[in-house]
Amino acid sequence: MKTMVCTCEDVSADDVGEAIAKGYTDIESVKRYTGFGTGMCQGKQCHATVASLLAREAKTKAEHVLPFTPRPPLNPTELSYWASAPFDPAVPVEGGVPAALGVTPGVHPLKPEEPVPARAQVVIIGAGIMGLALAYNLMRRGVTDVVLLEKGYLCHGASGRNGGGVRMQWGTATNIALARRSIELMKGFAAETGINIWLRQGGYLFLAKSNEVAKKLERSAALHNQHGVNTRLMSVEGARDLVPGLSMKGVQLAAFNEEDGVIFPWAFLWGYAAALKKKGVRIETFTRVTGFELGNGHVKKVLTDRGEIACEVAVLATGAWSPPIAALAGVKLPNEPHRHEICSSEPLKPFLGPLVSVLDSGLYFSQSMRGEIVGGMGDPKEPPGMELGSTMRFLTRYSQALLEQLPNLSQVKILRQWSGPYDVTPDNSPILGRTPSLPNLLQLSGFVGHGFMMAPAVAERMAAWMCTGQPDELFTRFNLDRFAAGRLEREDMIIG
Questions:
Q1: Where are the beta strands (DSSP E) in 192-297?
Q2: Residue 337's pLDDT band (cuts 50, 70, 90)
Q3: Please, which pLDDT band fits residue 98 given cuts at 50, 70 and 90?
Q4: What is the domain class of 119-161+271-335+427-479 according to CATH?
Q5: CATH for 165-190+200-265+339-422, options being 3.30.9.10, 3.90.980.10, 3.30.230.10, 3.10.150.10
Q6: CATH architecture designation of domain 4-68
Q7: Cβ–Cβ under 8 Å, residues 305 and 288
Q8: 17-26, 280-289, 366-375, 474-483: lowest mean pLDDT where?
Q9: What mean pLDDT is predicted for residues 332-338?
């Protein structure tokens, strides 16, 4: 007989015990691993029980069982309610319900007591999808003397806050090739690691309202087909046949690629992490980088709040958090963080095959394996900044835009919302390769909202470049010095 902990999500005490056995002993990680607290009651009934299990089974001290980050709205609320709320589209948004992200300022209560290793061949700062994928590909090439540093729990940053979309529909040949290779690698991930990431290739359906965006879809579709990606332009009627119930209000053209899709993002990180740990690669969570020791134009040591690590190579893979860390080494990055809000509905009977995006507004939505409608959209009026709270303005804008296209969802309830940072560069393209002033400090950031889907392919190539020394134009074309030289690499197929 199962002892139930979370009846909303069918999570038992044994499920929590399995998470603890895998090393997830903080409440945010257990929440992600089991799904407890993500249903209708939002943890009101199960949080205390899981906290007591952690205290008893994981020997986690009571003062270290931090409450997980609350997800508004307080109660499940219908989309029609949010769509009717007033807001001024001309007024920039600020603040919102704060998001602690399970990471506190200063010394984290869950920081391990033992020091970090004194030395490693490679230190990767950031154990999100980029850092983990790079370590995994280095490990496959025999490089296991690697330490990853993560200031919070696995999945706490942008990698654990995205909608899981993966697509080949991009505006440059480079991104098309990278995305195509990433999806190919995702298909084999379960067989390779034993972790199912639930890749569902229902396609991406892009909708264009304006002439400008319609022309963009026409150009990109032609480019996709030149590079072996079968994107089809569709009429309003064709798109409506693909997704019954779409109003297609204001839409004049659509583009569809059936090989695009959606994955379950958290499992991707867990799969990489589990494979790395089996080979002895150290993943040091709740550990903050505090500085660098430099000498002779190189990084000699990475300094943390748990000691110093001497290294041959340091890699900066912290996404939108990269600029302040780079500044500790005297390096200025042009990245800017932009909040991107997202939400999830109550589960519905499966009806939505592709991920749908209105490219003009940045709206996107898909249906998860559990039946939830997961979607979001950016806000052009919001200034850049590492603000990761949740706002009513977003729920209003999103609900209005979603119901315009799927009016039959008006009575569906929003269960929870959250946000994550887009890591935006001046040309919407990444920063990769050597830092001009510190050649053994490697850059791996600036992917705007698409780092998750590019990580497998980029990491595969970066590991090969690091291990073989063979030139790869990816790490020269997208080098940091391109901005000073005015040599931008623009990508314009950005959602949000």
A1: 204-208, 232-234, 253-257, 261-262, 282-284, 289-295
A2: very high
A3: low
A4: alpha beta
A5: 3.30.9.10
A6: Orthogonal Bundle (1.10)
A7: yes
A8: 17-26
A9: 97
